[in-house]
User: Fold this.
Amino acid sequence: MTSFCNISLGLKRTQEKYPYKRAVVYPEGRDKNGRVLYSQMTFSQLEKESDQLAFGLARTGISRGTRTILMVTPGMEFFIIVFAMFKVGAVPVVVDPGMGIDRMLQCLKQGKPKAFIGIEKAHLLRTLKPSYFKSVKHWVTVGTRWFWGGDTMKNLMVETDDPYPRAETTRNETAAIVFTTGSTGPAKGVIYTHGNFEAQIRQIQEHFQVDGDEIDLPTFPLFAMFDPALGMTAVIPDMDPTKPALVDPTKIIEAVESHGVTNMFASPALLNRVGKYGKENHIKLPSLRRVVSAGAPVSPANIEQFSVMLSEHAQIHTPYGATEAVPVISIASNEILTETKALSEQGYGTCIGRPICDTRMEIIKISDDPITQLHSGLLAEDNEVGEITVKADLVTEHYFNNKEADLLAKIPDSDGRVWHRMGDLGWKDSKGRVWFCGRKSHRVTMQSETLYSEPVEAIFNNHEAVFRSALAGVGPRNNQIPVIFIEPQAPVRNKKDFILELKKMAKVNPLTERIDHIFIEKTFPVDIRHNSKIFREKLAVKAKKKLGL
Assistant:
């Protein structure tokens, strides 16, 4: 018997349970006294308006299976469009605009879209670069349509109170294609099925114990999509989502206080910026029950700083995952600050916790080659650093039109299921906790030993004048020269003495004694999505020039 599964049913269930609860709250500006003005929509209104748009999308030819570029800013329209698309069975193709226009266009072309829904600026881009959109047959403008033709979202809204007869999609049917940022290689289109999304929502709900009275502040727009299915009000923050490291802390704090926000997602960069301001100004945020921070390793110092603003019962969770599988492992601040923090500072790596809910995890021996089947001979020894590999209902099984990526990242097993290779290195301790040691591609392989980014960088990060550090390798595999880059807390007056001090510190630790080259950088190149992942590949190119190689 066919099992039907459509992610839009999550909104329907929430609407039936909390019809008049606010679904989305969006800042629209300020009044004459500087107070924020908000637009808002209840779950009943979101269900009705997404039904109305679903009728219009179907009539214009955007229907089940239609791959559709979605380039809409966070807000009311985003939620209406996404759930209308799920209802008709269309497939949103989501690309992070912050990755740069050229890379974004390549991703959009790779997605082979048949439709395009976007704001005016997005349509202007496609008229200037028409060669990337040759496959598109249907155009919808969110806002004012200018000279480019097609439909507008407003004109597609069908005035009716009838519910849309949602597509009877199956568990294994494609629900969306979400592109990775490509922070450690080419961006890849990740195929999310309706079953993946359903399992993701179930895992988030179960692990974080989300209640029906909760209010969320999702500072990463894509995560806001889960709020309606979780029954949470989504308060859209007043910020540029592509620049979380430059967020105005007062606007984030204002949103939390104005709405009694109970749940907040923050990248490590945003957590640091808001936490620093909050600590300096003695801010307290008692409404917050939990803060979720992900996107890159979160330092214990960052967690400790932000925790000052929270009540004693609130915790900061640092779930681990990737675009292809999230969340799969997690740990909370009480365990980090009382136990793992001291070990991380000694170079054990960053403790990311234990597998959550139905997630299965194995550490396999490090290899850059494809693996065709998972077997016991591939498993790493206890306490041995290897590649983190996971299996769960929420784990995506394929990339879009990318067999090479499937071969390198996916491992079929004897049960017909697929394990995902995270591309991250780590080891498991006697308590079942996983310690993250860095990206597989960031390991530095010398003739006699291998260095891993997280343990090595932790030693340098202990210096009071160091904001963060980055390990890079120069030269061919198995014969690399390790170098360390330092981003200081403040401008350094005497770089020569500072480097000499760091070298002395490095020489007395077995993890860092082989590092002879230290370079100072004003700021590190980081990813757009979270402003937290360091582009060590770019630093390695700089190091090669500095060493004259």
DSSP finds 17 helices and 27 strands in the chain. The radius of gyration is 24 Å. The longest strand covers residues 418-428.
